[in-house]
Structures are given as structure tokens and as C-alpha cells.
Amino acid sequence: xxxxxxxxxxxxxxxxxxxxxxxxxxDARGKQPLYFSGGTEIITLGRINEVYTxxxxxxxxxxxxxxxxxxxxxxxxxxxxxxxxxxxxxxxPLLGETGAGVADRTSRNKITLGGNVCGRFxxxxxxxxxxxxxxxxxxxxxxxxxxxxxxxLFDRTLRLGRGELLVQAMTDVRYAAFxxxxxxxxxxxxxxxxxxxxxxxxxxxxxxxxxxxxxAFPFRSTEMELILNRREVPAEERIxxxxxxxxxxxxxxxxxxxxxxxxxxxxxxxxxxxxxxxGVAIG
Amino acid sequence: xxAEHVVQLELHVNGERRTAVARPADLLLDVLRExxxxxxxxxxxxxxxxxxxxxxxxxxxxxxxxxxxxxxxGQAVTTIEGLQDEAAQRAFVEQFAxxxxxxxxxxxxxxxxxxxxxxxxxxxxxxxxxQSNICRCTSYEEIGKAIHVVxxxx
Lengths: 283, 154
Ligand SMILES: Cc1cc2nc3c(=O)[nH]c(=O)nc-3n(C[C@H](O)[C@H](O)[C@H](O)COP(=O)(O)OP(=O)(O)OC[C@H]3O[C@@H](n4cnc5c(N)ncnc54)[C@H](O)[C@@H]3O)c2cc1C
Ligand code: FES
Ligand code: FES
What we know:
The complex is a heterodimer of chains A (about 280) and B (about 150).
Chain A (H helix, E strand, L loop, with lengths): L8 E3 L4 H13 L5 E3 L3 H8 L7 E4 L4 H4 L1 E4 L2 E5 L4 H7 L3 H7 L5 H4 L4 H6 L8 H6 L3 E6 L2 E6 H4 E2 L1 E2 L6 E8 L7 E6 L10 E8 L2 E7 L6 E2 L1 H7 L6 H9 L14 H20 L6
Parallel strand pairs in A: 1-3, 2-3
Antiparallel strand pairs in A: 4-5, 5-10, 6-7, 6-10, 8-9, 11-12, 12-13, 13-14
Helix pairs in contact in A: 4-5, 10-11, 11-12
Chain B lengths: L6 E7 L2 E7 L5 H8 L18 E4 L2 E4 L12 E3 L8 H8 L9 H14 L5 H8 L9 H11 L4
Parallel strand pairs in B: 1-5
Antiparallel strand pairs in B: 1-2, 3-4, 3-5
The structure holds flavin-adenine dinucleotide (FAD) and FE2/S2 (inorganic) cluster (2 copies).
The site of one FE2/S2 (inorganic) cluster has 12 residues of chain B, from loops.
């Protein structure tokens, strides 16, 4: 029977504290535990031996990881919410629609926000709205809990210490009123991994932009934002200058050459600026 | 395989309580097929890409190759064998919406969920949901017609 080639134990803690304590205990016993949220990455990579674990800790029954709603002026996103649930809640369309660019609808009934942000795939489109809004993340680990803006925690990947669990993200509700654009460009079929995704909002100080599929990691660049917001300069020139300041080389892989990606990025950026400078709120 | 890695699973499948002895690492797809003989959910890519393995879990379409059997404990699992003369089944026959038929159970489960959860689905929603399933025989036109019949949009 083709399946995950190695056995593992399955745990289903009821609280954040229990999950972290389990991790510490299993880790000490050499079980190489993994938090298991949607589990799609652990299952698909486990099947081909690219992920190994002897114990998974399913966080889907932990109420804090499943919370969704508003609290103290912020939307609360439990890390174990599926991308479909976030989309269907229609609380914050920028997050719902950008997350809906991941995979396909049925897979998004399983893929979670936390798994997408913490996983090892490089696209992680759902992180873009969190970067644009510098949403605070609540993290629990063996050393206790901490909350910090994602800008301080996410650098190419989410910087988690051993045994740390992403519990929630929080987004200031005022961002829901800002005009936004989220544009996923694919090369092949409509459900392919993205060639690239640009997500942007127009905040008080100007347009903020975050990218996935441009470099080998998702990012928001304030340096590029400064350049792109100089409205006295023609858009084409701003875009060329901004592209020269990308934080890393443009991806060059089977999905698209660096040259092709650069071309698509130019076009997408041009349209994004045009739409947001006109002030239209569009998805 | 160490004995400690085998557990007794109690699942709720097609309205019945079923038990299986399986590893926590076993996929829902494999337990349905191998332990319960419910072979309607088809293994295609086993990678979440094709949708042939789609079942309903608490009424939502789910790719059973992306789910551990143990995860579904306490939830209602429905396979194509659990459907009784659904509109989607009739529409597939009437519209000739299959050739080899391998993708058919997955499509039908997804359409049944769509018609129950989003009966007023617009074209965008229909497209978004249906992109989860692939038909290698490219019966898309007929499948599209069947969906529109089910949703009363002929
Ligand atoms: C058919 C298909 C298509 C896909 N298409 C895309 C795509 O277009 N774009 C894209 O970005 N990805 C895509 N993916 C990849 C998918 O988004 C990632 O695999 C996603 O990260 C998995 O989410 P999950 O909830 O299933 O994660 P899991 O498998 O549960 O976890 C992934 C990793 O993150 C860790 N983790 C999970 N939750 C937490 C947490 N709360 N705290 C700390 N660590 C945690 C786990 O330990 C594991 O290492 C696709 C996957 C499939 C199956
Ligand atoms: S076998 Fe599950 S999606 Fe292809
Ligand atoms: S009918 Fe053959 S795969 Fe769809």
C-alpha cells in the first residue's frame, strides 16, 4: 500500500500549553516531533521521505488556534484556521483573497494559515497580507509566550525557536477599509503554483507592497515602497528603479526564467500602481 | 512496524460506525479503500493535485490523500458509496459527463458539496471549486453541463 513510509504517533492536545509541553517531552525523547496543522505538507513531503518525524502534534483542536473574529480593534486569526474558512468569513478580503490564491479550493479546506506561513514551500501567499499590515503574531514556546509584529519575526521565513508554535496572528481592523490589490499571476493552469503574486494596500503614508514568487522567499520591501511612492517620477521609471532594489536575485526555475518573471513583475506592478493611485479598491 | 504504531480507529463512514486497525500515519484514502473496501475514492496523484480521492468530511469536500484517517475521527465521512441517487449522479449519466470514469467519484463528491453548501454559487465560485478536480479524458464540457443542471442553471 503506497503511503507514508514510516510510522509516527499522533497527539491531539487541547491547549497551547499542552501542545508545547508535548513537544518538549517528545523532543527530549528523540521523536523529532512536528506541529501538525493542515498536515498537507507533512503528508505530501513525508510520503516521499522529505520530512521525517516520529510524532505529530495536531493543533487543530486547540481553541486558541481556531479562533476567528475581532478582539480589541484587531481581527484574530487562529493559526489552524483553513484558508477556506478565512476566505468565507469575509472579514478581511485582502487576506481571504490572497490566501485563496494558494492551491485549489478543496485543498484549501485543509491547508491552514499557520501551515502556509510556517511551511517550507517558498510561495506562502497568505503571509503577504500579514506583512503588509505588520500584523502581530502570538507565539508560544518552551520559554513562554511572546507577541511581536511580523516584521520583526519574518525574514525570508518565520523565525521560530525550537518547539515554538505560532498560535495566532492579529490584524488591526482599520486595514480592512484600505484599498487593496492582490494579483496572482500563473504561467500554467489556473491552479498551478504562482509564477508570482503581488499584494498591495494603500495606507495613509502611501502604497505598501509585498511579493511572492519573485525571489526565493516572500517579502515586503520598504525600500522599494519609497521608490514606488514617488509619484512625481513616471511609473515606468519608478518600477525599473524598484526592481533594481529587489532583496535577492529574481527566481529562475522551471516555472519561469528570471527574465520572464521580471517582465511579468513589471506589468503587474504597473497595473497595481495604476489601480491604487486611482484609488479603486479591487481584488 | 512496532505494535505501538498501530491503533484502533473508530470512524463514522456513510452513516455507520466502522473500526479499523491502522497506523496513525495511514491516509484516510487508504483506510477507506483497504480496510473498508470503499474503493470509490480513487488514488490518482496522491499529492493533492487531481481530486480523484475527494470525499466529504462533515459535508466539506476533502482530498482523502491529504488527510490522515486518524484526523477524521469524530467527523462524518461520506464517500460516493454513501450517496443515494443524488442529482449529481443522475446529471453525470444524462450529460455523458465521463469517459473512463476515473475522475467521476471525485467530481461528484465536490459537486454534491457545492450544491449543498453554495446552492446559489455564481460562475466564479463554480470555477473556483471545480478547479480542484482534473479529468484526464477532458470531459470538462459535459461535466460543466452536469454542474449547471444540478445547480438549476441549465
Ligand atoms: C495541492 C497543493 C497545492 C499547493 N499549492 C500551493 C501554493 O499555490 N502556494 C503555496 O504557498 N503553497 C502551496 N502548497 C503548499 C501548502 O501551502 C503548504 O504545504 C502549506 O504550508 C501547508 O499547510 P498545512 O496547514 O497543511 O501545513 P502542515 O503540513 O500542517 O505544516 C507545514 C509545516 O509547518 C509547521 N507548522 C504548521 N503549523 C504550525 C504552527 N502553528 N506553528 C509552528 N509550526 C507550524 C509544521 O510543523 C510543518 O513543518 C500546496 C500544497 C498542496 C497539497
Ligand atoms: S489522489 Fe488525492 S488529489 Fe490526487
Ligand atoms: S473521465 Fe477519464 S479522467 Fe475523467
